[in-house]
Amino acid sequence: MSDGLTDDRPAVRVSAPVCRVEDLPDGASRGFDPLGEGRDTMFIVRRGDALHGWRNHCPHYDNARMAWRKDEFLSGDKSHIVCGAHGALFEIDTGLCVIGPCLGDHLTPVPLAVRGGEVFLPVPYRPGLRPRAGRGQR
Ligand code: FES
Hey, which of 43, 61, 137 would you mutate to test ligand 1's pocket, going by the most ligand atoms within 8 Å of its Cβ? Predict the structure, then answer.
């Protein structure tokens, strides 16, 4: 039974790479839809050689998606991840909210593995969270 904030659908092993490292310029963010759900359920931020994967839902409110525009997950100065709904700022490497209504909460990490220049999801991936019943999809 789902409480609306969790999801009972099973995790799925994703064998195909989500992208190539070279597809992610240093300092960029990009959303991905590993299960073909029709929306970006995760995103990756590249900083130098480091890749940081996060689920695309904000801990503040009802599984809100975060990008204010396709692939725009970062603040203007690219120093933080930003939620486009209410402007919460999160550390890129830890997912900690440092400014905003969910101060102290964390984004949900997505483990990544790089092999041969390709980025993989090394652990089974859960379908994207859906809004609670009675709320519109955002
Ligand atoms: S939904 Fe993200 S800050 Fe409110």
Answer: 61
Encode pLDDT of 98-138 as tens digits: 999 999 999 999 999 999 999 999 999 998 877 656 554 44
115 Cα–ligand 1 center, Å: 34
* Among the listed residues 7, 3, 5, the one whose alpha carbon sits nearest the alpha carbon of residue 127: 7
Q: Is the dihedral of CA 26, 28, 34, 36 positive or negative?
A: negative
* Centre of ligand 1 from the C-alpha of residue 15, in Å: 32
Task: Give the chain's domains with CATH numbers.
Answer: 1-128 (2.102.10.10)
